Prior knowledge:
By secondary structure, this protein is of the alpha/beta class. Helix content is 45%, strand content 14%. The protein has helices at residues 14-22, 47-59, 72-83, 101-116, 137-143, 163-171, 195-207, 226-229, 231-238, 270-288, 294-303, 306-336, 344-348, 360-370, 390-401, and strands spanning 29-30, 94-100, 126-131, 147-152, 154-155, 160-161, 178-182, 211-216, 244-248, 260-266, 353-355, 372-373, 379-381. Helix 12 crosses helix 15 (390-401). The structure holds (2S)-2-hydroxybutanedioic acid. (2S)-2-hydroxybutanedioic acid is lined by residues 13, 33-34, 134, 136, 187.
Amino acid sequence: RFSATPRGPEDAILGITLAYNADQSPHKVNLGVGAYRDDAGLPFVLTPVRIAEKRLAQDEHHMEYLPVIGNRTFCDKAVALAYGQHSGLDMGCVARMQTLSGTGALRMAGELMTRFLSVRNGQAPVVLLPRPSWANHAAIFRDAGCRVGGYRYYDEDTKGLDFEGCLRDLEEAEEGSVVLLHACAHNPTGVDFGESEWGRVSEVVREKGMVALFDMAYQGFTSGDLDVDAEGVRRFVREGHRVILAQSFSKNFGLYGQRVGCLSVVGDSVEEKEAVESQLKIIARPMYSNPPIVGVRLVEEILKDEKLEIMWREEMKGMAERIQGMRKMLREGLEGVGSRLDWGHVEKQNGMFCYSGLTAQQVDRLRREFSVYLTANGRISMAGVTTGNVGYLADAMHRVTK
Ligand code: LMR
């Protein structure tokens, strides 16, 4: 019955891991997926997560269903981490839901927007993505029934922000558009808005009657400080925006496969919050019924124990610092092997990724000749770079770019 089904391509990011796994080279390096590795190149489980896991096992917790909306205590902790303790927000007006990590939160947001965001001419809402954006964004919103558009963001020449282009595109956007903003550690470019840019974007979003939808998948990875990294979101909230926020705890808690995330929607009243939550439940029930129980319990356990929380914040900072150290070593390594190109952006960009500027052809050579795997757009997951492989990587990058 499915004989006419065309075979589809592998995912642009997760497909890289499949190719890497199949490679027999002892030198192989996976810089595809954004998943943190320690300096030995191994997956890293944070100490407070291990402690929380043991506590949970001792409790012999049950395996019952969570409510469709998820674990309330976890959601309360999650939104407090994002908006801060002193946001001035009336938390009674903030709808929140446990989601299947950041992807699930974005998809739920998309489904909610398609159904209930007041749109013009009966058309679906348009979601504007920065160019470029995370490879999965467009598919998430398209599949949720939204229209997908874009705004200029990255300047290939300066390897920095194209802020003028960004403002112009936002100013010319359809009134009422939804603007997707990466809260920090922009994926894939590592280029973030600074304070004054956030201020200007906030003004334009207000002037155009647009909705700000934040994707915060890397809170902590730009500065090492979770509060500093939430400043864009918090500023929007202070300035009166009714933001929609997708949070992932995959990276900052290292809980990738546990699928821990939260969607929150800031509203004007308790009635609005309750109505939104009621609809989120109606959307989730036929999709996956209710969310998983373990990952959120680990986060809850850590965030309700001051000592564990401090330990977590420290280890989170340590991850950000190790990545920053690798940026410096990679840049120095490239200079050390004699590259005459300017690699300053490797060190300047933020978060887990370096948008290297390597072409698809160079990326292909890296893979075929050196077993170095990265996404075709030249994005390097810096989290996979270690003191052990940085020299090999610098040499390989130099060879394909000279
Ligand atoms: C990435 O961009 O590599 C991560 O967000 C993982 C993913 O799901 O794509």
